[in-house]
Amino acid sequence: MSKLWKPIGLAALACAVFMLLNNTSLFLEHASEKPVLLAHRGVSQQFDRTNLKNDTCTAERMLPPTHSYLENTIASMRASFEAGADVVELDVHPTRDGQFAVFHDWTLDCRTDGQGVTREHAMEELRRLDVGYGYTADGGKTFPFRGKGIGLMPSLADVLTIFPEKTFLINIKSNDPAEGHLLAAALRKASPSQLERLMVYGGDAPIATLRSELPNLETMSRGTLKACLISYIGYGWTGIVPDACKHTIIFAPINIAPWLWGWPDRFLRRMSDAGSSVFAIGPYLGGEFSTGIDTPQDVRQLPEGFTGGVMTNEIETIGPLLRRPLGGNRAR
């Protein structure tokens, strides 16, 4: 029996050495790029995130405003890029007249002076609404943006025309497979170079449709992200990238990312070679919502010299921190 343990021990040691060498970032040439910054909701009004639900009216729990920008508007997107964003996230809904409105909520009642389901309106109707109508930081006593958001809801076509050289992450708000088909048709109108700069995430069903029609587009749904991370944690130590991790978007919570084989540099290189983009996000704490990298304390949890993507809800704060020269880009 003792003779058997020796080869078993040597085999285990060889396997451990292989896993270490195959997944360490020590021997990789360190990239000099700065992180890719994703501005979730652009420059937007922040709100109390306590006990959030899918139907929570966040405009009614706005924090005291520190700027005048409203999410999903052209001005907000422009301010995001000026603050250092490489990618701006936006939300879309198909409209009754065959366009896509850029707006977050499923219904109009919370944020605007309109009523009803967003997608049941024509784009012409939506353009007339005041998208700042419902914002209040004092329980409805005052509405600081009321009257200032009239005509500010753009279409997706507007955004892509105004920012032809910029990168966007488009969020489908439904789980309707037909919406994936509609969005694929809309995106085919973009030039090949512009299409390469677009990414889409949303419900499992529309993303599956979109992936079948535009297979080279980077896409993500909750299902594809879960399949990618579980598969990679399971056998990514081999260096094999699971199919679920190819041509996709990977949100990596900063408390889970260290479990990803080769994190950070080797993992980032593997995913880049697979045509995928990786964004570090705030810690996953078991609920439905994850935060972004939104504070200097969050920035300190990133690996030193991190060059992957970073998703933030506070681009005006995080952008300047992570745009400092490499080696001095971490908050002290």
UniProtKB/TrEMBL annotation:
Its EC number is 3.1.4.-. The keyword Hydrolase applies. It is an enzyme of class 3 (hydrolase). SUPFAM superfamilies: PLC-like phosphodiesterases. InterPro entries: GP_PDE_dom, PLC-like_Pdiesterase_TIM-brl. Keywords: Hydrolase. CDD domains: GDPD_GDE4_like_1. Gene3D superfamilies: Phosphatidylinositol (PI) phosphodiesterase. It comes from the Bacteria. Residues 51-322 form the GP-PDE domain. GO terms for molecular function: hydrolase activity. The keyword Secreted does not apply. This is Glycerophosphodiester phosphodiesterase family protein.
